[in-house]
Amino acid sequence: MRSAFRFLRIRSGAIGLAVVVFVVVVALFGRYVAPHDPNVPVGTPLSGPSSAAHLGTDFLGRDVLSRLLYGGRSVIGLAAAATVLAYAIGLAIGLIAGYSRSKVDPILMRTVDVMLAFPPLLFLLVLITGAGSGVGVLIIGVAAIQAPSISRIVRTATLEVTVRGYVEAAVARGERAAAVVVREVLPNILAPVLVDAGLRFTYSILIIASVNYLGLGLQPPASDWALLISENREYIALNVWAVLAPAAMIALLTIGVNLMGDAIARSLGRSYVPRTTRSVPA
Amino acid sequence: MTDPNHPHAPSGTETEGFRLSRGTLLRGAAGAMVGMSPLLAAACGGSGGGGSGGAASTGGSKPVRGGTIRAGFVGGGTAETLNPYAGVTPIDESRVQNLFDPLFVQNPDLTTSPGLALEMNANANATEYEVKLRPGVEFHNGKTFGAEDLIYSIRLMAKPANFASVPFVAGIDLNGLKALSPTTVRIPLKFPDADLGANFVYWNTWIVQDGETDFTKPVGTGPFMFDSFKPGEQSTFKKNPNYWVTGKPYVDALTIQSIDDNTARLNALLNGDIDAMAQLPTPQAKAHQSTGDITVLIAPSPQAMMFYMDTTQAPFTDVNVRQAIRLIADRKALVDSAINGFGTVGNDIVGKGLPFYNTDLPQREQDIDQAKSLLKKAGQENLTVLLRTSPIFPGFVEAATLLAEQAKAAGVTIQLKQVPPNSYYNPSLLYLKMAFAETQWPIPSLKFFYLQSLSAQAPYNETHWKDKSWNDLLFKAIGTTDPTAAQDTWNQVQKIQWDQGGYLNWTNADWVDGVSTKLKGLAPHPGGVLGNYLFMNAWLTA
Amino acid sequence: MTAVAEPRRATREASPVVAFLVRRLIGALLALFVASVLIFVGTAVLPGDAASVVLGRGATPQAVHTLDERMHLDRPLLEQYTSWLGGFVHGDLGDSSVGLAQGQKHAPVWDLISNQVKNSVILALVTALFMIPLSLGLGALAAVYAGRAVDHAVSIGSLAAIALPEFVIGSLLVGVFFVWLDVLPPVALIPPGDNPLSHPEKLVLPVATLLLASLAAGIRMVRAGMVEVLQTEYVQTARLNGLAERWVLWRYAMRNALAPSVQVLAQNLQWLIGGIIITENVFAYPGIGTTLVTAVGNRDLTLVQSVAMMIAVVYVFLNLLADLIVMLLVPKLREPA
């Protein structure tokens, strides 16, 4: 989709991309410039910034900066995998339900309701308590939490679009359902879905961090931004950087991804003005 | 009725601290007690965590009557209980130690004084005891405490469902329990024990009323009376106006609050929502020692924090591997980083400062070269092991992480697995099945620990130690009435553990708590947090 | 949606909505039934049980088995399920598994949690009260001034807030308003039985934390929906026709943007329940969140099941409400497929 890169013409989109690239580069390559081994204590626990540790030390005396430089890969990888999986499931369910509007719709949506009815954190608590805290469990658990709400949003957006004239026209032309969905519906729901996608990724990271807060999830001595935040959380007053630095990286990633998403949505919106024929809202 | 022999009897100046009790010191027929424990002498000298700990919380002010003390603890949700014989956590202990009384009270110097029992006298070979009970003590409902209450309590302690108390009365022959008078009880034993009194100090053996069954409205003899209880939230108590220590407690009421989150608990203290918090995280303790906005209460104690290895699971079946692991640990670094210096270095045998501790053994230090050669001898160079840890006690995860790092120097790879607290000590899940893990033991006496963790019938045999001749030696030590002979036998018992056992005791950790500057009278006590829960000694200033 | 035969206009509007409601209600009940099975099975397969938790270190398999038998915790699963669900439907949430294992004759779950439930509901409602108008207002503001400074400020501000986990936001708020400024309390310890609303200053920081953590999603969805609609032809046509900006805005844009926004808001309210667990822990607020976490750890299965079921009921009906509102807002959906 050539037009997808049009978003770069929007200034906020370009900024978003730059921020994302920065964070990803730090996550992927930061470890090669880290001043210390992230697992070795280099000073008294929770001391402030010094020449040996530019962001101070964590609760075990390890260098915060080094742990930060090592800690991006796993959290981004985990969250990305979980989010992608969530979208695969959520898009499928939402599109089918929203487009078909037949018996399939209520069945799918009631199933989604059931899954939504289970409080997410409680679901993860129970899942991890039962299945143990491995990376696979986390990915599946987070995806399972996100997929239902994605499917609802996709379904609503699909519903909105299917009542528009051009979709009805395509159906009237005799095009098959799958073709209609891919050519007419999907591109038009991209806008709200993309806006949602940016936040979804952040939610994945946040869910992981919250699970760590409750004492389950990632294992020490892993340097992982989400784990860094939760294992140093109690000591925010003693060395704020141990928490603020990884949190800032996650925040930057969120802002960047969302700016990009917004810009993509806007650029798509301009080239996909709905070709309305007779739809005037009541 | 005032008892001048009680260590908490009102005296002229209320300066608590590390003084010898003026009360009669009783330890069965063996009599004489060692004096101030060396552990506390060291602390008196100002080592360990530093400045504002110690007896600073009294500062010589005079007690003020009235008010409510509010203390915050980590909660246990609906599992919180008022049953002393089934309680486990500090919050349970806080309630029990204020509702009930023990037969013998533990003093800050680890000696004991008469509580509900005045004396415990043994026969010649320490197989039978006669307990003389304190007369004139009233329960909260007005009934007088007597022999029937003690007998009922002991029988209740022995019920299998009351798992916490069972080990303390396992040696008592229940059929022979007899009330010789309203204030005298005969207790026959199944095996000789030179010091039965020591079994009735720990909170899981405090005395309840004859007929107490479900503890929904518990009745005790203690300084506070039951008022309300919402498990997982809070419990309230009113002062006992007829407490047998006249003049105490000073305050009118006590509230025990469940606050799980450490930061929230500390914030509640800083904001004045509570007057005392148990278990102040050590980094915070260090930081607040210099600010002076709260009093940091530091109590050196024999509390043991240890790694342990299952002697029946490979590779720890080989004593060379076990000793190698013990030599890998840089204990001072562990104490400094994992618990921020709030503890003394341990030497793999527990109970430093307690009677019969083996002081002849040299302090084990880190020796990577020796560790490597031992591993080579065992054919286990480049060993990889799994260490399970849990945030159940502060310092566990930290120490495990640090040990893993230290082990690299000897070519040993320690993989960490963090496990939720509830499965860690659950024998139906993980407890007693892990090859390499951590544990914490309060150590009221050597006998307590060795019987419960290393003897042939030990209920909590974490290292799965089984050695018949060693077991015989242990029971010989417990039954020897002559103190010198007993010390000698105990030394042998400990030396064997030091040479071959599965425990890596890296520290005797301090109790570290936070107290409002308005709360006075709580003195550091090796027996437990917040001055061993002695709220009856505390008062609130304006 | 079945075709409605009669052509009379009066009922054509009403009956599809009624039909919708009826269908959805049945669907909701079905969903709740399935949820109850999932909840029950999910918690029942957890390793360990209340008896072993209560027995602590003494929980040898033998001891646990004995205690289970005495406390009737070992009845067949189906029997436990039916008696639990049967009781629940009548308002009886069952007896706490841990309470029974401790030897109590009755340990009604409701008695143990009624306070906490009330407190959590109040916290959620106060937050929702602020969240809905704030989301709509700020989202509309950002949409109207799309691309300009106000838009960027709102967008980036709310993004930064949502990127931080609740416990970080909570800790930072405490750092600013208690440690530095000392104007608000750092914990929300409400005495049992008290109405939280009588301690409003204690609610400020928890509510602020929850709001900051969740506003971004609502704002952005409202904004996105409105921006899209503002660009569509009919709005532009309306503008060209000289209709007042505000009228255009409210009449067309808001209504059409509301549909997905309502979804997100409903979802936000659901997310609130998860956020409440963390926030209550951070501020030591005596709500259902803290109780749930310890209950899972304690394997107090009946308590967890009953509370999860209660939350499920709330979720499902919130969804229903959201879908109903969407239906009312998008008239086309009322027509047969």
Give an overview of the whole structure.
The complex is a heterotrimer of chains A (282), B (542) and C (337). Chain A has helices at residues 11-29, 64-70, 72-100, 104-117, 120-131, 135-162, 165-172, 177-213, 225-231, 241-271. Chain A is mostly helical and 282 residues long. Chain A folds into two domains: 1-69 and 224-282, no CATH class; 72-222, MetI-like (MetI-like fold), CATH 1.10.3720. With 542 residues, chain B is α+β, with helices and mostly antiparallel strands. Helices cover 25% and strands 19% of the residues of chain B. Chain B has a seven-stranded mixed β-sheet with strand order 8-9-10-1-11-19-12, with helices on both faces. Residues 1-58 of chain B have low confidence and may be disordered.
Note poorly predicted spans of chain C.
Answer: 1-11
The proportion of residues forming helix of chain B, as a percent range, comes to 25-40%
Which radius of gyration of chain B do the C-alpha atoms yield? 23 Å
Beginning-to-end CA distance, first to last residue of chain C? 6 Å
Are there runs of chain B of 5+ residues with pLDDT below 50, and where? 1-58
Quaternary structure of the protein: heterotrimer
Short description:
The complex is a heterotrimer of chains A (282), B (542) and C (337). By secondary structure, chain A is mainly α. Chain A is built from 10 helices and no strands.
Protein topology:
The complex is a heterotrimer of chains A (282), B (542) and C (337).
Chain A: H1 11-29, H2 64-70, H3 72-100, H4 104-117, H5 120-131, H6 135-162, H7 165-172, H8 177-213, H9 225-231, H10 241-271
Chain B: H1 38-44, E1 68-73, H2 90-99, E2 104-106, E3 112-114, E4 117-122, E5 128-133, H3 147-157, H4 166-169, E6 178-181, E7 184-188, E8 224-230, E9 234-239, E10 253-258, H5 262-270, E11 276-277, H6 282-291, E12 294-299, E13 304-309, H7 319-328, H8 331-338, E14 343-345, H9 368-377, E15 384-389, H10 396-407, E16 413-418, H11 421-424, E17 436-441, H12 446-453, H13 468-479, H14 483-500, E18 503-509, E19 511-516, E20 519-520, H15 529-533, E21 539-540
Parallel strand pairs in B: 1-10, 1-11, 15-16
Antiparallel strand pairs in B: 2-3, 4-5, 5-7, 6-7, 8-9, 9-10, 11-19, 12-19, 13-17, 13-18, 14-18, 20-21
Helix pairs in contact in B: 7-9, 8-10, 13-14
Chain C: H1 9-44, H2 50-55, H3 61-70, H4 77-89, H5 97-101, H6 109-144, H7 149-163, H8 166-180, H9 200-231, H10 233-240, H11 245-283, H12 288-297, H13 301-329
